[in-house]
Amino acid sequence: MVIILGESVRYDMLNCNRPTGLKTPHLDRLAAQGVSFDKAYNCQPVCAPARSAIWTGLYPHTNGVWGNSMALGNTTHTIGQFVHDHGVKAAFIGKWHLDGVDYFDTGRCAAGWDPDYWYAMRDYLQELSPEDRVRSRNPATGDDPSWTADLCYAFRCTNKAIDFLAKHRQEDFLLVVSYDEPHGPSLCPIEYSRAYKDYEFPRDGDLDDSLENKPAEQRVWAAGRLEKHLPAQKAPHFFGSHTFVDAEIGRLMAAVEKDSPEALVMYTSDHGVFLDAHRLIDKGPAMYDEITHVPFIVKWPGQVAPGTRSSSLVSHIDISGTIMDFFGLDVPKTMEGKSMLPLWKEPKSPGRDYTFIEWGRYEVDHDGFGAFQPIRCICDGRYKLSIHLMTTDELYDLKTDPREMNNLIDSSDHAAIRNHLHDKLLDWMNVSRDPFRGYYWGRRQWRPEFPVTWANAGMTRQRENDGYLPRELDYDTGLPMINATRPK
Q1: Residue 85, pLDDT above cutoff 80
Q2: Number of folded domains that form the chain
Q3: Which keywords does this Swiss-Prot/TrEMBL entry list (predicted)?
Q4: Which of 108, 210, 252, 445 falls between 20 and 30 A from 263, CA-CA?
């Protein structure tokens, strides 16, 4: 199995998903060889938390990474450790971002993954001269013809992956290739950015969003931009870097087809970027599709019909459980997702009833992006409800309002679906042992009759056994716990 993880690639940045003029021929080819899911969502639209859910099968509020620069909990195990301990070779090449330190991680191989192929961004920086390290973090370097492909992180990640495929093609393996580009500083060989010198990303109506009747933090975020006319986005370095990574994926896929032609290949992205949609920049405490709706492609020779498109609802939380199932292993009860293998084999079958997305905090090595802005979100494929704990909430009909301009949170015509989704969201927070849960998520301005008690839902939510930890003990008896979720 080969998993390719993109960085800062939104759903409509693939030409096969939307013909915008962006060049993604290799990803388009991958989609033509397998199934593309049109309704795939991440678990939190920022780097580390999004990745934490993918590689653990646990939501960020469970695994500990509810913001950047926060480490996985010491009782949390990644999919690499699970499959390694069952005899499957596991290699992780590229951006990890889960050590809880800086953007570049520690360079120490995480448990279960092959140390010979571990290649976090710190490893890459240590290969460069001090001068090139500084150049590698400077966006202006993208205009320097001397910054060639071999100096780019994506190129070196691909080379290591090609080497792994050549040496381990006779084995069962899990190979992850996790690119950092086109995330800033968006470096690539100059010919790629020059190709987008005059390119403009299509200007959609949400660039004119007044943010009226939207959560207050969005207006704070958009300060200084609300009264401006925002032109179509021009970002030659970002878009050029995106096409450069597509070319690297082409190199990688050529090696897969040579050495492991029957391998299952999955591509997705951690999150998208706004490109000025809703007058917002980058990504952050919001649940709009530009940053939560991600590309998701599966090529599985002999199992998935080429050129298939699916409208089934898909979530990143199910990736780890799917990997376990693919290798014939039991999905640990601790994982909060499930296997997608049946859906991959029958893409027209129903997917999830709901996907859940959250927000905690965003920072790199500095405070910013609104600091602590707790959000919990549920989407059923048509309607999306977002509870912004410290301000006001949102409800959108993605069928009639795909740009999420008309907030229906106070619409009496939509009260029944809103309250239904609200109940399902609160239930998920209880079942997943969300440490931020409480009555305040239920009693909202638009639902003042919601019953509240100091005991909240009154449920015990201990953890099931994941194969690594001892069975939890009941607090009242000291005996092994029987039912993890029960009235107390």
Answers
A1: yes
A2: 2
A3: Calcium, Hydrolase, Metal-binding
A4: 108
Out of 350, 385, 412, a domain closes at 350
- Whose tokens are 């293998």? That residue is 341
Per-residue pLDDT at 368 exceeds 90: no
| pTM (two decimals) | 0.97
486 pLDDT band, cuts 50/70/90, is confident
pLDDT in tens, 101-156: 999 999 999 999 999 999 999 999 999 999 999 999 999 999 999 999 999 999 99
Instruction: Tell me 64's DSSP state.
Output: S
The set of residues, in sequence order, having a beta carbon less than 8 Å from that of 307 and lying 6+ positions away, is 31, 32, 33
CA 157 – CA 165 distance, rounded (Å): 13
Q: For this structure, is 366 an active site residue?
A: no
Candidates 97, 237, 278, 293; catalytic one: 97
Query: Domain boundary residue among 350, 382, 416?
Result: 350
Distance, CA of 7 to CA of 308 (rounded, Å): 24
Dihedral of alpha carbons 344, 43, 16, 26, sign: negative
Active-site residue, 47 included: yes
Cβ burial 309-318 (10 Å sphere, 16+ → b, else e): ebebbbbbbb
Q: Looking at the structure, tell me whether residues 381 and 242 fall in a common domain.
A: no
Single-letter residue type at 4 = I
**Catalytically annotated residue among 47, 109, 157, 377:** 47
Q: What is the residue range of 483's domain? A: 359-487
Local confidence band at 488 (pLDDT 50, 70, 90 cut-offs): confident
220 closest CA partner among 392, 378, 44:
392
Query: Which position has the token pair 């580390």?
Result: 48
Same domain, 185 and 301: yes
- Of 175, 214, 378, 201, give the one whose Cα is nearest residue 272: 201
Tell me the percentage of the chain whose pLDDT exceeds 90: 90
CA distance 479 to 289: 46
User: Which candidate, 250, 233, 231, 128, places its Cα nearest to that of 187?
Assistant: 128
**b/e burial code for range 121-131 (CB count within 10 A of at least 16 → b):** bbbbbeeeeee
